[in-house]
Design goal:
Oligomer: single chain
Bound molecules: zinc ion
Distance between the termini: 29 Å
Helix content: under 10%
Order of helices and strands: HEEEEEEEE
Strand order of the largest sheet: 4-5-6-8-7
Number of domains: 1
Largest sheet: 5 strands, mixed, barrel
Strand content: 35-45%
Structural class: mainly beta
InterPro entries: ChsH2_C (IPR002878), ChsH2_Znr (IPR022002), NA-bd_OB-fold (IPR012340), Thioester_dehydratase-like (IPR052513)
Pfam families: OB_ChsH2_C, zf-ChsH2
């Protein structure tokens, strides 16, 4: 499990990864315009404000686009034994987009429009990444 490439944790994105390790989704929200911001940044991409706070968004969303990974690209053989798997871009209900693997459904059955909830997958000690599971 430890052979999977690990995310690069920086002071800017550390709150996200700390929360992910606890299996909680934490994203930035702009205190000026109120929009949710993903991925972590130093200023709001919508209004330019640097006044961002970390908040817990709703954990549900709708798949915007999906692809099925069948071959290893780059040097990440640790993922190979889990292939094929679906990777989706998800429009979260609070208005930001995030991507991750979709677990709990056959890859070929994952479709745009499918409702999902975020979950977390431990990929190493103290490191978890967001994944998505279809809502019933
Ligand atoms: Zn803003």
């Amino acid at each position: 499990m430890s052979e999977k490439p690990l995310p690069e944790i920086t002071p800017l994105n550390k709150p996200f990864w700390d929360a992910a390790a606890r299996h909680e989704l934490l994203v930035q929200r702009c205190k000026r315009c109120g929009r949710f911001v993903w991925y972590p940044r130093g200023s709001c991409p919508y209004c330019g404000s640097r006044d961002l706070e970390w908040v817990k968004p709703r954990e549900t969303g709708t798949i915007y686009a999906v692809t099925v990974a069948r071959v290893v690209v780059g040097n990440s053989p640790a993922w190979e034994k889990e292939m094929p798997y679906a990777v989706a871009i998800v429009d979260m209900d609070d208005g930001f987009r995030i991507y991750g693997r979709v677990l709990g459904a056959k890859p070929e059955e994952v479709r745009p429009g499918m409702r999902v909830r975020v979950d977390f997958e431990d990929i190493s000690t103290g490191v978890a990444v967001p994944v998505f599971r279809p809502l019933p």
